[in-house]
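Data availability (excerpt). All sequences and predicted token strings are deposited with the supplementary files. A representative entry, FecR family protein, is shown inline so that the format can be inspected without opening the archive.
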Amino acid sequence: MSGEKEQSRYETLAEKWLKGTITPEEANEYADWYNAGQAEPVDIPASFATDEATHEERIWRQIAARAGFGNNTVTATPLRRRRWWAAAAVTAAIVTAGSYWYHQHHTHVPASPTTQVSDALPGSDKAILTLSNGRRIVLDSAGNGALAQQGGVRIVKKEDGSLLYVDDQTGAVTDTLYNTMSVPKGGQYKLVLPDGSRVWLNAASTLKYPVAFSNRDRTVELDGEAYFEVAASAAHPFLVKVRHTQVAVLGTSFNIMAYPDETGIHTTLLNGAVKIKQGTIEKMLAPGQQAVVNNNNGAITVGETETALATAWKDGQFRFSANNIPMVLRQISRWYNIDIVYQGNIPQGHITGKVPRNMKLSGVIRILELSGIRCRQEAGRLLIFPSS
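Structure token line:
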């Protein structure tokens, strides 16, 4: 059996296993395929849940080897809506996601059996820079090198596509001139501020900042999501304003997710220390903690978190841990520049898993479907249907 036909065969078996329609003979065939060449064969239904992470990695290595990806392939782990799924169903989802990743690179998968729709591409580096005089520069189409000069500060597009501010007057410029970087849906961008602080902006985000920092604090304004690596300067606190909330830092790495359509402002600290201020309430964060400012009442909740979940977008992944379905779909909407349209009641449940952000939308749709989310892509829209 050829490699592609083999992948198709076990994709079919995986889907049957997931739906509970697989026959005992097909289940044995599927288990034999998984255990082929393994030093220690595994009884998948009985043993998977005892060491989930190990078996996920083992299954993916087998899939990747059979598909010819080698060891450098990014894992496409399933989005699991129910942690209490049978072990066989979880395994099936992983295998199906892996084999679909194979087909994404070899065949075109139509979005609808009756209507040909162009597959939505993943986001890319794109942004618009608005200078203090109102001039707008489309950064993704601008050439490398110096783009403009504001006061004594040069604005340079580097070869890697990022934006760099160079203060030729070494701090003598006042901070009365402001620039705004706007990243649309379907985009992301990186810039280096005059003090050397690095900022990554996610899709549908805006950052307003001075072209040079004064001798006082360093203040920027964020709408959307950004990851910051702040240059240390004890005498000049770095402040991020998000609506009525302020995040104050010295030198540290942290992520702020503050989209207006989310339930709160999420600040996740990787290292250093930050102070969250909302009105008269202040909270300090330690590394590995996340603060959530409730959009409705301004209450601040602080707790331990897995920081990789907050920064996965910067590293080229979607990662979810018991996130509700609308929140997951909002992330997909921003990255693929597509509107989410619910055809009836919003599906209930939570999703856990990870997939690479460089997949086309059709690949993500297939994984969503394996998670029990019924959806279909149309021109500029992703239709979500009630669970059957």
